[in-house]
Amino acid sequence: MNRVMMAGLGLAGFGVFMLVAGKPTISTQVLSGVVGKAETAPPQPKAAVRKPVFVFLKIPDPIMPEERDKKYEKPIKAALVKAGVGTVTGAGTGLKDDGAGIEYVGVDVNPTDFKKGVTILKAELRRIGAPKETRLQYSVGEMRIDVEFEEAE
Q: Which of 59, 62, 72, 113 could form a disulfide with 102 if both were Cys (CB 3.0 to 4.6 A apart)?
């Protein structure tokens, strides 16, 4: 079995990105997997809850880590911190199925106010020029949510 692993440590937890049997796999202590796309408006944590929620941004942009930091991590973190609604806690890179190159970059976000945080994320992703296929992946209880960033509410 062909395995390629990359690991990262962020405030949201330890994340492992693996290529197992030719398929990319994301595993973290906080978000153990995302399944499918929500058919209706996804459930959301209550806006009044100030406890951080882990949101993984999956951005289909095959760029190197240094460029990812400059293009996505720093501006997103600055926007969230300025608004007082969260921060970026880590990032990573996902490989193509064949392991020959980068398929996407990921940014770990902990909004302290989910609704306001998602509003800021959407605006910042638009401003940066993130691909429209960029996905927000998060959990509500046991339900895993995976939506294009424009669909997130």
A: 62
Assign 142 a pLDDT band (cuts: 50, 70, 90): confident
Has residue 40 been placed in a domain? yes
- How far apart, in whole angstroms, are the C-alpha atoms of residue 38 and residue 144? 9
Q: Count up the domains in the chain and report the number.
A: 1
Residue 57 included in any domain:
yes
| CATH number (domain holding residue 55) | 3.30.70
3-class SS of residue 73: helix
Report pLDDT digits (tens) over 144-153.
Answer: 889 888 877 6
Q: Are 138 and 31 in contact (CB under 8 A)?
A: yes
Q: What is the DSSP letter of 91?
A: E
Residue scoring higher pLDDT (59 or 3):
59
Measured from the Cβ of residue 92, the count of other Cβ atoms closer than 10 Å reads 22
What number of other Cβ atoms are within 10 A of residue 102's Cβ? 16
Cα–Cα distance measured from residue 105 to residue 123, given in angstroms and rounded to the nearest whole number: 19
**Does 104 fall in a domain?**
yes
**What is the C-alpha to C-alpha distance for residues 118 and 124, in angstroms, rounded to an integer?**
10
